[in-house]
Amino acid sequence: MMSSLIEVLLENDCGRHIRDAMSYLPSDPNDLLFLLGQQNSHDLQLSFCQSAVLQILYCSSLFDENGLTDWA
């Protein structure tokens, strides 16, 4: 649901990245932040997940919402 909302709000298909990474994203908001701190340039799955987390945080900050509590 979050991915569709982001696509509508930002008027592009960036929600696709969130849908692609959804099964790999942790459910705990603190773990989402921990995920951003991980470094591994050879892990594409990690890169996709980090991109999805950044998009969630960006969209949340645009609309002054705490999107980390109910991002899924």
UniProtKB/TrEMBL annotation:
One of its GO terms (biological process) is meiotic DNA double-strand break formation. InterPro entries: PRD1. PANTHER family: PROTEIN PRD1, PUTATIVE RECOMBINATION INITIATION DEFECT 1-RELATED. This is Uncharacterized protein. It comes from Eucalyptus grandis.
